[in-house]
Design goal:
The chain is α/β, with parallel strands linked by helices. It folds into 2 domains: about 100 residues, Rossmann fold; about 120 residues, Rossmann fold. It contains 6 helices and 9 strands; from the N terminus they run βαβαβαβαβαββαββ. The strands form 2 sheets. The protein has a 7-stranded mixed sheet with strand order 3-2-1-4-5-6-7, sandwiched between helices. α1 runs parallel beside α6 and α5 crosses α6. The protein binds 5-O-phosphono-beta-D-ribofuranosylamine (GRF). 5-O-phosphono-beta-D-ribofuranosylamine binds next to α1, β5 and α6.
Length: about 230
């Protein structure tokens, strides 16, 4: 049976779209049962509806406190039957109750190489800092923001002229590849968390081009002879 999944988002939903496409292509072993947003105007809801996926809106402003908002989220997720929760640009911090209810079953994606540049401005912060390499990180959700055990990361070059938008576009293209992969691994029971370390089953091995050869992304690239 395919794992029932709920996707939570607040905005465009391009990561949701990447997942829907992979589910419909039969590449991800998941059944997206619900797309839930805290904003009624999130374009991600339209993307879901277009593909016949049930949607729900739980507006944070409609609840007196975070506990009540979280309880409403939990109720909507429970009603959908989802066993896995995927945060895809969900711009609210979740409280301990919902985090513990889905411990080891909730993922988030962050547009920087954690633990660098956590928070809501990952791409512009990295661009402003002048890093030469940035990227994206899929991690399990724990009680601290952008903090849980890391499942997968992908790196992209950051260029001296980049602003957050240019760097962010390069990162987003990779988000669309690594997030569906991570969701597939989780849904097929291949991720095992031991402390801060996430083990991929069967055992993860270094990529072929890295075996003994050192780093595979150097930016700016090395010149001939180095
Ligand atoms: C992405 O940059 C993701 O890393 C961050 O929120 C953004 C969501 O983008 N958590 P989209 O709504 O999937 O297009």
């Amino acid at each position: 049976m395919k794992t029932p999944v709920a996707v939570l988002l607040s905005g465009s939903g391009s990561n949701l779209q990447a997942m829907i496409d992979k589910v419909q292509a039969g590449v991800i072993e998941a059944d997206i049962r619900l797309v839930l947003s805290n904003r009624a105007d999130a374009f991600g809801l339209t993307r879901a509806a277009k593909r016949g996926i049930p949607t729900a809106v739980v507006e944070h402003g409609a609840y007196p406190c975070r506990e009540a908002f979280d309880a409403a989220l939990l109720a909507a997720i429970a009603k959908s039957g989802a066993r896995v929760v995927v945060l895809a640009g969900f711009m609210r911090i979740l409280g301990p109750e919902i985090v513990s209810a889905f411990a080891g079953r909730m993922l988030n994606i962050h547009p920087a190489l954690l633990p660098s540049f956590p928070g809501v401005h990952g791409q512009p912060d990295a661009a402003r800092h002048g890093v030469k390499i940035s990227g994206c990180t899929v991690h399990f959700v724990d009680e601290k923001m952008d903090h849980g055990p890391i499942v997968i990361q992908a790196a992209v070059p950051a260029l001296a002229d980049d602003d957050g938008k240019a760097l962010g576009a390069r990162i987003l293209a990779l988000e669309h590849r690594i997030y569906p992969q991570a969701v597939h691994w989780l849904c097929t029971g291949r991720l095992h968390v031991r402390g801060r370390h996430v083990h991929l089953d069967p055992a993860d091995v270094p990529p072929a081009d890295m075996a003994g050869a050192g780093p595979c992304l150097v930016n700016p690239p090395l010149e001939q002879g180095f």
